[in-house]
Amino acid sequence: MHILVVEDEVRMAALLKRGLEEEGHVVEIAANGPDAVWMATETDFNAIVLDVMLPGFDGFEVCRQLRATQHWVPVLMLTARDDVQDRVRGLDVGADDYLAKPFSFAELAARLRALDRRGSEVRPPVLEAGDLRLDPAARRAWRGPTELQLSAREFALLELFMRHVGVVLTRTRILEQVWDLAYEGGSNVVDQYVAYLRRKLDRPFGRSDLETVRGAGYRLRQPEAP
Fold this sequence. Notes:
4-stranded antiparallel beta sheet; single chain; elongated
């Protein structure tokens, strides 16, 4: 993989570069926001490892500018603050994944491999599945003409399902994506929130699109062709 590491702390940038090169990747370094945008738009990278705190402008702005100019290279954001609002903001501006410092290098490498498998496909600004629509940037969702009134966690859960329509998502994967890797509340919280979401997404409309796959997890049913 050809990876751009955007990190202004010299020691951290050197550690990331050395570790990724030992994994067989080609690595380039940018130390500030403007350089990161310029390098990412002039060169085809397979992935970007992007620190949030940068001189010039921060990682959120780097990601926002790349997505605004239709550059869809996968972005893994690094933050020193394990804060939900930072993670939500990063995902809203188009980041694909996040990792809080300090982190294990093995996990960073695994997440980059997963992003590389996903590729740099264009991501629509509004997600659609049948009569469901979801606008990640505006934090709004609709079933047909009816706007759904969702909590922040319910919205994040629906967004995850709509990005993986027809795919069975395990409770563990949902916990990792909608809560966080360090969450210790148990997987029953997933069942609770799926139930909450069904009450707003399916039951008022006489639908059953959010399916339980026994022994596996949950799936948002693939819409039937008209």
